[in-house]
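Quick question, first post here. What does this chain look like in 3D?
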Amino acid sequence: MKKWLIFPLIVLLSACVSAPEGLERDEFTIQSLRQIEDSDYVCQCRKVRLGGKIISAEALKNQTKLEILSLPITTYSAKPVIESATDGRFIAYLDGFADPASLKDQYITVAGILKEQWRGKIDEADYLYPIIKVTAYKQWRLAKEYYYEYDDWHDYRFRRFGHFRHWGWDPFWRPELKLRYRLY
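> Answer (accepted):
Ran it through. Tokens below.
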């Protein structure tokens, strides 16, 4: 391949992995609950981009309140990383009505303004929830994918079509099918 084609190809492919509109990473000062400090609540003007799994949703008069189990988000696509450990919880307020039944147990990324802290409870424990006034959000869909590990396919081809001199040859052996989840 010619060298002058590599750069345009890289630019074209990098455009495929971009955050939804309003969730671009350059605008936000806070992208993790661990980055929030007490001084950030004073001005009520800090921009945040957080994501996670919706634990509960409640429809209020002119807005919808979400309690979200925070997960780290990917830098470019803004998707929550579902395999990672949580770093806390936060409350997000969406303008307008969103059906709570359709939001519960879904994954979401929100962008907005850090407003204040709210003292609540998680079971019997006291907890300080950061409150986010949402300006943009993306609800992600969870998909199941079945796949084979590359090494398993290599072993299968070698056992199936390789030399008969190996003791492990078995015409009925198949690679193990694996399951993973991804957001889209």
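The CA atoms of residues 146 and 179 lie 5 Å apart.
Residues 145-183 form one domain.
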